[in-house]
Amino acid sequence: MKTEKQTTNKALVALICIILLLLLGSILYILLGPSGSKSYTAYIYQDGSLLQTIDLSTISEDTLLTVEAADGGYNIIEVRPGEIAVTDASCPDHVCMKQGFIQNSMLPITCLPNKLVIQLKENTAGITPDAITY
Fold first, then answer.
1. What is the mean pLDDT of residues 98-104?
2. Is the pTM of this model over 0.70?
3. What span, in angstroms and rounded, lies between the C-alpha atoms of 110 and 112?
4. Residues paired with residue 120 on neighbouring β-strands, in sequence order
5. Which residues lie closer than 8 Å to 88 by C-beta, 6 or more apart?
6. Parallel, antiparallel, or unpaired: how do β-strands 109-111 and 83-89 relate?
7. Which residue from 48, 72, 76, 101 could staple onto 88, CB 3.0 to 4.6 Å apart?
8. What is the pLDDT, as a whole number, of residue 45?
9. Backbone angles phi, psi at 17, to 5 degrees
10. Residue-wise pLDDT tens digits, 89-98
């Protein structure tokens, strides 16, 4: 009787370990997944209006942009090949600056006091839709 209980416990522990490994693998794939061949376009919005789009794959040298808010605030945006960030801002908390450079579309840069949003979207030229994406 005792060996039957031990066998059940070992099987349960093995099942839990397999589930945890699958979960960890899925999280790592989502965070570090295949993004090497993807190119992105940055969409810069202020107060809900699109100000500018920048194809990050066409950038060859570092560029600085200044976006001024209606109340006198500002954000300085640095664009590098394949990435974008807010490097200076007049907002009090500087959350937008602390986010650093982004290279994918997982999380946009937002500056709530200056009503600025920078969102990356994957360039889809040449991608043909299939049954899943259609």
1. 92
2. no
3. 6
4. 42
5. 74, 75, 76, 97
6. unpaired
7. 76
8. 96
9. -60, -40
10. 999 999 999 9
